[in-house]
Sequence to fold (1006 residues):
Amino acid sequence: MTAHAPARRQFLRGAGCALALPWLEALTAHTPHPRRMPPRRLAILVMPNGVLPTAWQPTPAADGGYTPSFALEALGPRQACTSVLTGLANRGSFTGDGHYAKVAPLLTGATIRRTGGRDLWNGVSCDQLAAQTLGHATLLPSLELGCDPIYPVEDMGYSTVYGGNLAWAAPDRPVPKEIAPARVFERLVAARSLVHEPRRRAVLDLVAGEARSLSRALPTRDRQQLGAYLDAVHALERRIAQATTTAAGPLPNHPAPPPGVPADYPTHVELMTDLIALAFASDSTRVVTFLMANEVSGRDFGFLDGCRGGFHDFSHHEGKAEKQEPYRRINRWHVARFASLLDKLAALPEGDGTVLDHSMVVLASAMRDGNAHDPHDLPILLAGGAACGLPQGRLLAHPADTPLCGLWLALLQRLGAPVEHFGDAVAPLL
Amino acid sequence: MVERYCGNCHQGLDAERDLDFAALFAHRPAPDSPDAARLERAFHAVRSGTMPPADEPQPDAAARRELALAFGAIWPAPAAAGLPTMRRLSRLEYQNTVRVVFGVEPPASDLLPEDPRVQGFDNLGDGRALGPLGFEQYCAAAAQVAAAVLAAATARERCFPAALPLSDSLRALLARAFRRPPHAAELSLRLDLAAARQRAGDPPDAVLDALLQSILLAPAFLFRIEAGDPQEPTRLTGHELAVRLAYLCTAAPPPPELTAAADAGALAAPAARLAFAQRLLAADGGRTLAATFFDQWLRARDVLDSNADFRRYPAIWNHTLRPSLREEVLRLAQALITEDLPVAVLLEADFTHVDATLAKLYGLPEPTAHGFQRVALPDDRRRGVLGMGAFLMGSSLPLRTSPVRRGRYVLEVLLDAPVPPAPPGAGTLPADDAPVGKESLRAQLERHRRDPRCANCHAAMDPFGLLLENFDVLGQWRTELHGQPIDCSVELPDGSQARGPQGLQQVLQARRDEFVRSFAKHLLVFASGRPLWPSDEAALQTIVADTAARGGRWSALLGAVLASPLFSHRISGAPR
Fold:
């Protein structure tokens, strides 16, 4: 890590792996807001490169729960509210080689088109469907978070863009993610200060009108580009309207994260989970996706004991113990970060319980054994959401290749989205 | 021709790999069909020499070109293949455009929307649609730029000269910002906006601020829109040509003299396009083109992300090493441009540019002055980009070199011979080159190559990489590895023998036309903003022939590219 100003050091002292940050305590003092019914929320965290199956699979217990595996031990006390789902798969990802063909459709259930960039085609992701149907209630319809810029490499003929985006607003339109914690924070702050200014309104009207009139004379792909532009303008107009009519929860007084992209990865992930907790607690948004690292990430986990080397390389362990050991430790580290987010949400009282009780939190990977790019029996954890009727601390075994989309459908319905089917699922899983 | 070289195996009901040319030539395959994909693979295979197999009669270079043309002619282009997708300004282009148009410093690049590299370049339209987050970033940037303009007297005078009525100054500002004369409505709507804001009681600066933001957020500013000549939509207008030229050479809007040439219709002449391009490139010594196109095509910037293991290769502790390695490539590209060298110099240069860090890395005498200096290379091992650490290190893994990646770079970047993805379960080589048991890395690679599923591609990739095994992870010369002498002699796919980097240089010398074709193709993707397809092969072959006919220098290649309909038109390639 490079040298930082004292303000940053002060901030980081609270970060790291601490369970409750100073400002989260401050937040606790400010919440709950007077509200009749706490809102329901969805957060989906995605870890790249699959898991080591033997380190993941828990042992069933007589009461329907489970004895944790090596990786799941990191849940600690949060095991009580975390269910393990097995047997789920995304049929859309059975064809297509490599990582990108699996991660891009993880939340859409589609089969993506193999292209180097022209005419991208995926489905609409469940988080975006939620944002489109329910996002009008909050300042930001959804938040898309990540840690890596889009890698400049194609994977097996699939565009760079497929590897770095979970959220898709339309089949041809990935939703870029924010990777700098400070900018996420600024966005949460800015969302509150947006006011209806006639002058801004006039400017937006003017440029939107120009996009519409230019569009008429242009070919299809250009019209799509301008369509995306227009949707972005309208999204901002909606947010302005929202900011003036919604009584948003206050954003508690606390230090902003340091500017830029943190050089230290654990700090980066910790800050992002802080921001998820902050966004939920202040009701800035109710839908978050967090791509913990882009698929095929070769990040060096040298900060963990015995894990010096590339993550992706370890995931192709070929059954060798010297690669499996770091691979499973890295898996466990991801589960620990997930548990840390659960801790933060559980520390925030809301209504009769906590924010966690009203937040459905998922940890998923787009493949099971990274060694074989196995798209079956995906590793899925489902936590929190006790007040949304989610099962707590169960091992939920499903028949092989049960549509993962059934889970997304179930979560969408619990959020209140009026959807009857999603992807290849016609009935909710839960 | 096709029957003569391919018919033996690929004809009739029992055709190899379901590739039946008799059927394909009788009924053109449908776009996006499996047959179209097979045809495209065949197109690349005959071009790059992997087909016909070595035990069949081999076509000569001219026959290979003819085969590629024949396949390209029946290859079914997808809908609107010849149209680029409207391009959003890259971060660099946005910043340069703000500087030139408004005369103020732009926002830092990481405050602007991300530029994913699609098809190798960060300024294409495909895959870079604007989202809500990006538009918010543009809004913040617009507010910042507008405030800066109003705060600086010179910038203010530049945008709204005190001597001119608002309508005149606005027309001139719009023409600069939109890189073409504004449409009547674009001007009148903004004048209406100003009048309305005045009526609403906004102070004068608030009115100007709104006008500036309405320009900075307009699609005609943020995007490079090409609508074509109204009379002949496949042709770009003069202004659109000027924009392509200016952003190609300087990543910035056209300067006034180029706009004047566009107004006068002078850019219809290819010679005028070349003259302007050379003038633009001379203005900054080719720096921008080197740092945009060459940097991305030759993957020089990838070395910045290289993660050689610092315990085994402590030299990478030097934080200037990786940036200096990238700079070395850019300096060669600038030399190519400013001195109008033969394009082959990228592969053959017997000189390079080093600073103290690189001189130490390469074992060259320390430079006599601070910064980069040109030096002659003392022997014929290191030549051009393949002897540079940016490639040698950028293609290596933390603990070993990767002959496979190096070979793949030669094929994909230098020869435009795409390598298909590895089949699932292809296996991996160890991460470290320290010998495990008795088998060396090379022996394991050779065993892997005997697997028939792997043989085809690895037979083409691995030899090129193995010829460079004397260059270690950092690109330093070595003669042994873990106590074993390095064997850098290989058998090439055609059965001939080659040895060391000099052997690779000879191979590439014999394939010079393919290199020129790859250079031109990548430059055209960057300049025109669209992928090139097998159906564009005839136009590409013309460029290669013209480049050779004009002497093979940089200006010859640039001139042939700028004269091509692939540059000046929106739809080209074989007619459907």
